[in-house]
Amino acid sequence: MPLFDRLVVTAKSRVIHGRTRQASRCVSTIVKNNADSGVSSEPPIRKSVFVSQSTDVFTNLAWEDWLYRHYDFTNHHVLLLWRNDPCVVYGRHQNPWKECNVQTAKRRGITLVRRNSGGGTVYHDNGNLNLSFFTPRARYNRKYNLHIITRALFREWRLESVVNKRDDIVVEGNYKVSGTAAKLGRPNAYHHCTLLVGVDKNSLRLALERKEDDIVTNATISIRSPIKNLIDVNADIEMDKLITVIGEEYLRTKALVLEDEERELSQQEMELQFIDPTERLYTGLDKLTSEFRSWDWNFGRTPKFTVTRTLEATGHDGKVQRLNFNVEVQNGVVEEVKMNPPGGSTMVDFGEDVSVIAANFCGAKYSHEIIENIIAAISCKAIAPRTRIEDESNVIVTQ
C-alpha cells in the first residue's frame, strides 16, 4: 500500500459525511487550467480533504511542511484545512519587528511565527480558516484553488466574491477576505491562503500595528488592504459549516478544471477526514514542530537590518549635540553599534567612551528593549521620529 494511503488509514480519523447534491455549475467562476485548455479527459487523480484537529500554529505549520516533504501528490491531490489560536504569521523573508508590534503581541499572548512560504504577514485566530492546496508543482494552479472558495461561498450562501489581480479574494468592491502565498519545490508544491470568517479585528489591529518605523531593511514588506469578515457580509456563515461546504466543493470539482464531476459522488467520496497530527502518525513531526518553535527560525532567520535613531547628548560644557545612532543586526543578533555626529562634525566629550559602552551590547539578541537599554547606558535622549496617523481598524496586511 502506498505511503499516502497507509497513513490515511492509520489516522483512524473520524469523518463528517457531506451531503451529496445534484451537480450544478457556478458559471461566474468557471476557469480552466491553462495547461488543460481544450482537454476534456483527466488522469485518474484522487482528492482528499484533511481537517486538522490541532489549533497550535507550530504543529499545523509542521504538518503542512511534513506533507510537502513526504507525500506523493502525483495521483492524489490534497486540501488541508486548519485553524490556529491567536498568532501572527509572517513570511519566510520578512522582519517581524518591522511587520508587527512584537511587544504588544507578546503581552497579549499572541504567538509569533515565521512560515516557510514567502509573502506578507497575517493575523490568525479561531475566526480565520487556513487552506493549503497540495499538488505536484506541474499542476500548481492558485486560480483554480481560489475559485474553489468563491464557488463554495456562492453555491451555499449566494455570496458573490472575486479573485483580483493580486490573487486576493475580495467582496463588495475591494474588501479583502483572503490573502495568498505559496511554496514551490520539486516535485511538490502548495498554495495556502487565509479566509477571514469572524476574526477579532481589534486584536488584529493591535498585533499588526507597526511601531518600529526606524528599521532599514531589504526584507519583504507587507502591503496593507481594507478587510472584512465574511460574517460582515452574511451573518449566516458559520465556521464548521464553512469547513464542510468548502471541503465538499473541493471534492466534487474535477481535479484539473473548475467543473463539477459528471457523476454523483458516493458518500465515501465526499468524506472529510478529521486528523490530529502527531508524531505517532507522522514520524519526524515533533522535530519539525520544534524547529518552527525555535528562536533561530522565528527571529534568527530575519534578513540583515539596521535600526536608525537620532539622539541628543550633553557634553561636559553643557552643550547639546545631536548624534546619528545606528545598530546593525545580523541573524537577529546585534552586530555593531555606531554613533556619529551629523555632517561629519567632531563629537563632543560627554563622559565615558560611547563606543566602549555600546560594544558591550554586541552579540545580544535584538529586541526593542535592547535599543532603549543602549540609549540609557550612554546617557542620551532619543528624539522621537514623526509618527504618521493611520486608521488601521479595518486593515490587514497581504499574505
Automatic annotation (TrEMBL):
<feature type="domain" description="BPL/LPL catalytic">
    <location>
        <begin position="73"/>
        <end position="258"/>
    </location>
</feature>
<dbReference type="GO" id="GO:0017118">
    <property type="term" value="F:lipoyltransferase activity"/>
</dbReference>
<protein>
    <submittedName>
        <fullName>Lipoyltransferase 1, mitochondrial-like</fullName>
    </submittedName>
</protein>
<dbReference type="Pfam" id="PF21948">
    <property type="entry name" value="LplA-B_cat"/>
</dbReference>
<dbReference type="InterPro" id="IPR045864">
    <property type="entry name" value="aa-tRNA-synth_II/BPL/LPL"/>
</dbReference>
<dbReference type="GO" id="GO:0009249">
    <property type="term" value="P:protein lipoylation"/>
</dbReference>
<dbReference type="InterPro" id="IPR004562">
    <property type="entry name" value="LipoylTrfase_LipoateP_Ligase"/>
</dbReference>
<comment type="pathway">
    <text>Protein modification; protein lipoylation via exogenous pathway; protein N(6)-(lipoyl)lysine from lipoate: step 2/2.</text>
</comment>
<dbReference type="InterPro" id="IPR004143">
    <property type="entry name" value="BPL_LPL_catalytic"/>
</dbReference>
<dbReference type="GO" id="GO:0005739">
    <property type="term" value="C:mitochondrion"/>
</dbReference>
<comment type="similarity">
    <text>Belongs to the LplA family.</text>
</comment>
